[in-house]
Amino acid sequence: MAYSDKVIDHYENPRNVGSFRKEEEGVATGMVGAPACGDVMKLQIKVNKQGVIEDAKFKTYGCGSAIASSSLVTEWVKGKTVDEAATIRNTQIAEELALPPVKIHCSILAEDAIKAAVADYRKKYAGATEDADKKAAD
Amino acid sequence: MDARRKPIYLDYSATTPVDKRVAEKMIPWLTENFGNPASRSHGYGWEAEEAVENARAEVAKLVNCDPKEIVWTSGATESDNLALKGAAHFYKTKGKHLVTVKTEHKAVLDTMRELEREGFEVTYLDPQPDGLVDLGKFEAALRPDTIVASVMHVNNEIGVIQPIAEMGEILRKRSIIFHVDAAQSTGKVPIDLQSLKVDLMSFSAHKTYGPKGIGALFIRRKPRVRLEAQMHGGGHEKGFRSGTLPTHQIVGMGEAFRIARVEMATEGERIRMLRDRLLAGFRDMEEIYVNGDLEHRVPHNLNVSFNFVEGESLIMGMKELAVSSGSACTSASLEPSYVLRAIGRNDELAHSSIRFTIGRFTTESDIDFAVNLIKERIGKLREMSPLWEMYKEGIDLNTVQWAAH
């Protein structure tokens, strides 16, 4: 399997590996995939009062492309609002990392991980984003 | 590949380098002594024929059979095809049932599938969790219309040695033809065809420090086994396999098998020490599983699953080592090893397995380098693994509802 330089870079120097404590204020967690399928991604975001993702961390069980995809999205979501983060598409990830067709599922999983984290955030802090959005609009 | 940065080769069950002594012996048969061994009218042919027969005698000596019982083929895959299709076709009026094992090499399994398409019926036995076939279950699978059973001597992935002596006894009593794929066992396990009740045995040169593209099939003469030829032409090899004999390849296989016979005992001991050193290096690691029985096993093989680490990322993290992964991602499909699945390993463990196979040119420092590298990389990947984190938190992963995708 030939990997792009970007995949190899993320695999060898993964960004933002680790975990936040789940009970920490503003932390939401998305876990997707299944061990039997060969990949599981855990993406955590830490959202401030303004609804902006201040920090993100990941842990991934999976191939090099899965690790690179999740490492990349931790970089991308930082500084974005929760709503903005939810618009990241797998095609953007696949393009940035030059994933081969057999590895597209890794980028889909990374998109799903963001969505799962955002959903967890909305569930935990119901109404939080709307309030933040309103404030931003005021 | 830059020669200075070549990874350490620990994949001797995939193939072996040609021993330099073998390569040297082969060369004159390409350039100076190029005759066709089938040429009867001049010295070029005669000397080539003599070289072929000397090599045949060397192959026969390693496995203690009559040289007349050895037929040259292009490799173990062809030998398996000739043995199974040849016997099934010849004996089809006696019955249409064959027996084999789920952990066989694809050369046997795919040939069996082809025979099924032709109207034969095949039973695929499950091995035990240690990789070995239970003799009671084996015997119970045999039927009055069973004509052929095929079981490999040594498994290519997990290195376990099947009880072919006992199986031979069971089969001979019922006059069922017994085929054994011995591609992985020559030079590793003694083979005595005088005592083994095996009727057909497949050999390969390139797993035993000989060249690729040459193999042989043992076809027993007493009691005589009949085969229908699969390759037709000039009637070479007593009509079993037509085609001009590749003298240089055959000379190479003969020399490789001669060296194997002479050096097997000492080499085996050295390799066993290296394998034990490798295993000892992993002993203080958590959640590692050796795949396949350790006792009934060739010393060359160690197949280990590193739980909570995915196989392809593991291979990627071990660029400095040439090893095989049980996760077939590396070979373009996303299936875990069918051998590890057949012995009951779950998908995760099958995905996270590494096969180390040690050989003639492996050194102690190669092993030490491999141990240190693996410990470091496994540690790094586990730090990155959400499954490892959950395991450390005491969560039973079997109770988690995963979203399969």
Secondary-structure topology with pairs:
The complex is a heterodimer of chains A (138) and B (405).
Chain A: H1 5-12, E1 27-34, E2 39-47, E3 53-61, H2 64-77, H3 82-85, H4 90-97, H5 104-124, H6 128-137
Antiparallel strand pairs in A: 1-2, 2-3
Helix pairs in contact in A: 1-2, 2-5, 4-5
Chain B: E1 8-9, H1 20-26, H2 28-31, H3 43-63, E2 70-73, H4 76-90, E3 97-101, H5 106-117, E4 121-125, H6 135-141, E5 146-150, H7 164-173, E6 177-181, E7 200-204, E8 215-219, H8 247-282, E9 288-290, E10 301-306, H9 311-316, E11 321-322, E12 324-325, H10 338-342, H11 347-351, E13 353-357, H12 364-383, H13 386-392
Parallel strand pairs in B: 1-11, 3-4, 3-5, 5-6, 6-7
Antiparallel strand pairs in B: 2-8, 7-8, 9-10, 10-13, 12-13
Short key terms for the protein model shown above:
heterodimer; A: 138 residues; alpha+beta; three-stranded antiparallel sheet; 47% helix; globular; B: 405 residues; alpha/beta; seven-stranded mixed sheet; four-stranded antiparallel sheet; 13 helices; 38% helix; 13% strand
